[in-house]
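PROTOCOL LOG
Step 1. Enter all chains and additional molecules of the complex.
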Amino acid sequence: MGNSLYGPLDPAPDAGYENAPPRMGFFTDTSVCIGCKACEVACKEWNAVPDDGFDLLGQSYDNTGGLSANTWRHVAFIEQPSEPVFLGMPGSDLPGRAEDAERTDFRWLMMSNVCKHCTHAGCLDVCPTGALFRTEFGTVVVQEDICNGCGYCVAACPYGVIDRREGDGRAWKCTMCYDRIGDGLTPACAQACPTQSIQYGELDVLRLAATERVEKLRAEGVASARLYGHDEEDGVGGDGAFFLLLDEPEVYGLPPDPVVTTKDLPDMWKRAGLAALTMAGAVVVAFLGRRP
Amino acid sequence: MSPRGDRPMVPRADFKSYYGRPIVRPAPWTHDVAAYLFTGGLAAGSALLAAGGQATRRPRLRRAGRITALGALAASGYFLVADLGRPERFHHMLRVAKPTSPMSTGVWVFSAFGVAAGAAAVAEAAPLVPSRFARKVLPPVGAVAGLGAAAVAPALATYTAVLLSDTAAPSWHAAYPEMPFVFAGSALASGAGVGLIADPAPPARRMAVLGAALELYGARRIETTKGLLSEPYTTGRAGRLLRAGRALTALGVAGAVLGRGNRVVSALSGLSLLTASALTRFGIFDGGIASAKDPRYTVVPQRERLSRRNSPD
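Step 2. Run joint prediction.
Step 3. Record the structure below.
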């Protein structure tokens, strides 16, 4: 199996595609997200995703909560007051902007979250039916006519993305609009994004653009700008959908150092094998000895 | 230890989260899966007991083991299918054999075990069959099938530990080195429990002691050596279940050893071991679910890993 469970690789050829097209991905630059939720709406419209309830959560402008079977793009809203509390009028800076003007007392982070389409996708590894598969674009998609709702993928995802739909019983998540990108179209969310916070394209190109963008932001004084999920050496072999963040990942509800659970699978089987041998040995020992 | 045991063993760690929401998603499984962990282990332990009884010519152990294995197998099949989101599609599991999926591996192990254990149990009906030919053929077929089931049984008892560990649930994953030993021990103890009820012969007692030792050792390691990730196994419902399981295991072993020669004491010990095995499985199940529901268990260990990696020493 070599590198297949861990480490950098190109997932589509690894999955057996010959002459696979370039790996496609999302680069979500949260520094220009304005929290309009056009991505959430476009995703629902294109993919005919059912509603996820009409609740008021009391969590800033976020009334969706998080990614789920019925939310494949999710915009997070984080209101960060700074100490000491400033009682004057709020400023009008763009989020993260801090050049000439004094920083305001308040920062509003917004981030459109999505399935990461991991290089080493835990959901795909553990799926027992083959319903989850790797596409020629290196993305990960569920076949709804195969999934039997075992729920294993839900437990295996290090980001808590894929989810089983109530009343339907099957697992659902972002497909990176597999039905659009095969025709050369842009996924619905990226198409609808008015600020190019969501960029879609060849992953290699996006990674270069992202590196330039984060360097530019840092040069302008936004020291908190950092990329998330871009590194092929990380615990999931790099994400097909990666992000520019302005704070630590966990602030946005992302794991700070995700590692695909199947990285340890060979070790798990070794331990299980040892336990199985111990078990067999215990039975032999128990039944040894002459009959009284 | 505090009497209720709900005191955190590790100081509360500072961490950030998004409105306290979980990061990883708990497995969408009901306690059907926890029940399967028990019945699957019971099937494996009983099949091993039956094989031991078969090899050492103890027909009562053999018969009780084979019949329990079949019953536990049927219950397991029910629990596994009932917990699917689309139960009518359970056979989609059989369209692939996928080594990266412990559930796929487990389905094939379960199927192989099921054929063998089923045949062995059916062979026990030989004396009731009117056909002389069947009466003659069934016992040797049952003997081969019984040994076949016993050969697969250790895999059936331990793959479920890999199944739980191979997830993003922090406390399940962290427990992967010892969980197979807990499950192996728990399966042995439950099989021995059946033996103690059916025929409290010395092998059943020894099997009870060895199984309980394995189970207690593994659980102890999981509850004490995983730092923050041990906490979900020592607090809340999981903590109560595991403590009750440990107490009943100890009681069962004591009864098995001290009560030899006494059918009633032995049978009660067997019952105690069976209950303990079930409680342990439910405790391990609940501990992992609890660890996925609180973002602390996801964020803090990952932060610690990052700071270890970034610090020079």
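Step 4. Note key features.
Chain B has one domain: 31-298.
The longest helix of chain B spans residues 132-165.
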